[in-house]
UniProtKB/TrEMBL annotation:
Keywords attached to this entry: CBS domain
Protein name: Magnesium transporter
Gene Ontology annotations for the cellular component aspect, listed alphabetically: membrane
Matching Gene3D superfamilies: CBS-domain, MgtE N-terminal domain-like
SMART domains: MgtE_N
Residues annotated as domain CBS: 361-419
PANTHER family found in the cross-reference section: MAGNESIUM TRANSPORTER MGTE
InterPro entries: CBS_dom, CBS_dom_sf, Mg_transptr_MgtE_intracell_dom, MgtE_N_sf, MgtE_transporter, PRC_barrel-like_sf, SH3_actinomycetes
Pfam family membership, one: CBS
Domain of life: Bacteria
Length: 432
């Protein structure tokens, strides 16, 4: 089997990784490089490979035997310890792509550009180095480029020695290429990638995400990262992101901010959205009111089963919320009219689509008050095998619902999102 001599990281990061027996190990997500004042060229020391369970592990470049045929072949055993970036390491896709640099042209002129790709090349029996950088010219003076025989937006490949500021993170960069690489990830998995970035890079990635995608990712991040990202956004965008979040998650995040900051953000939100969050903020976080979402699936008793099924099929609904329809008298926005009962999705699937849901209501589920403790909510969900628990006031008006995922968030340790459940296979590989 031939040994590769060179590759571009952009292409490499799309390839599957196989062991010598042909079994798939995972997929390349990034390349790890190190810079040194003693070397003119940065050294590529390994691959970040995503294996089963969305775990990202480190595979040394010394284990790569081939990158031919649209796949990467490795030799030896793979250490399944979760990859954690070290201070002296740089991720090419996450941190170098789209970085603003200065590049020297063939004529000796130095012009601004952005990094589009990076070429690595085998150097000696055990080493790989960065040799080439594909850049796109971003000169602020197009006429100067014209004199050089080049155009703004033109892409060309330069030797790494001709590229300045490659290791300078302070110059800033875009995030489109990084997000393109990870576009297939679920929010929880993208959140893990973002959590591992530097604060500046997290802010750049957050700026490139849509409001809805950023809201989904923030909900999966540790509290410190949530606050850091939200505070880094301008007030208008922060308010839009809060509106896109689940109300209970948005209220939890707001509660971590100073009261004056809360008011500024609430004032920029839509009045109805702000009213829901203000109500949630009045409850202690370990009560039913603090746990609940104010936007469960709510329908009137005259709605048909076909209509109910259409509603729970909405893509934006979480799995937990889609399992239960809460049936109430108008108005159908919390606080609703009188709460009548619930209809579970399995029952909906067993009934004729034209029938009204009012005829199949489960009235045995008694709602809890918003002051009910976390323990009371947990026991009710477990006792009656429920996915969602209705929360109503003393007049029987539905205020919201607590779903099982909300309870899990509060039962697990506060730092559960940051814990590294490492599964180590064989011996740890040196990254020196």
């Amino acid at each position: 089997m031939s040994t590769p001599t060179r590759a571009f990281v952009g292409r490499l990061s799309e390839l599957d990784v196989f062991d010598p027996l042909g079994d798939k190990v995972g997929r390349v997500r990034d390349v790890v490089v190190t810079f040194s004042a003693a070397r003119s060229r940065p050294r590529a020391i390994g691959l970040v490979v995503e294996v089963a369970g969305r775990r990202r592990v480190f595979v040394p470049m010394t284990r790569v035997t081939s990158v031919e045929g649209g796949q990467v072949i490795t030799t030896g055993l793979v250490n399944m310890r979760r990859f954690e970036q070290r201070p002296n390491e740089t991720l090419v896709v996450a941190e170098l792509f789209e970085r603003r640099v200065q590049v020297r042209t063939e004529d000796g002129d130095v012009v601004p550009a952005t990094v589009q790709d990076v070429g690595i090349e085998k150097s000696g029996p055990r080493g790989w180095v960065l040799t080439r950088v594909a850049v796109r010219l971003q000169a602020s003076r197009p006429s100067r480029l014209g004199r050089l025989g080049r155009r703004r937006g033109e892409t060309f490949v330069a030797p790494v020695e001709d590229v300045r500021d490659l290791r300078d993170a302070s110059v800033g960069q875009g995030a489109a290429k990084l997000l393109e690489t990870y576009e297939d990830l679920k929010p929880a998995d993208l959140a893990e990638v973002i959590h591992d970035l530097t604060p500046q890079r997290r802010a750049e990635v957050a700026a490139a995400l849509t409001d809805e995608r950023l809201a989904d990712v923030i909900e999966e991040l540790p509290e410190d990262d949530q606050v850091e990202i939200l505070v880094g956004l301008d007030v208008g965008r922060a308010a839009d992101v809060l509106e896109a979040m689940e109300p209970d998650d948005a209220a939890d995040l707001l509660s971590e901010l100073p009261p004056e900051r809360q008011e500024v953000l609430l004032a920029r939100m839509e009045p109805d959205e702000a009213a829901d969050l203000r109500r949630l903020l009045t409850y202690d976080e370990d009560t039913a009111g603090g746990l609940m979402t104010t936007e469960p699936v709510i329908l009137g008793p005259e709605a048909s089963i076909a209509e109910a099924l259409a509603v729970v099929r909405r893509q934006e609904l979480s799995t937990a919320l889609a399992c239960t329809v809460f049936v109430c008298r108008p108005p159908l926005e919390t606080p609703t009219g009188k709460f009548l009962g619930v209809v579970h999705i399995q029952r909906l699937l067993r009934e004729p689509p034209h029938a009204p849901i009012g005829g199949i209501i489960d009235t045995d589920v008694e709602p809890l008050p918003p002051t009910a403790s976390l323990g009371q909510v947990t026991r009710m969900l477990a006792t009656y095998d429920l996915v969602g628990m209705p929360i109503a006031d003393e007049d029987g008006l539905l205020l919201g619902a607590v779903t099982v995922d909300d309870v899990l968030d509060h039962i697990l340790p506060e730092d559960w999102r940051e814990e590294r459940h490492d599964v180590v296979a064989h011996t740890e590989v040196s990254r020196g």
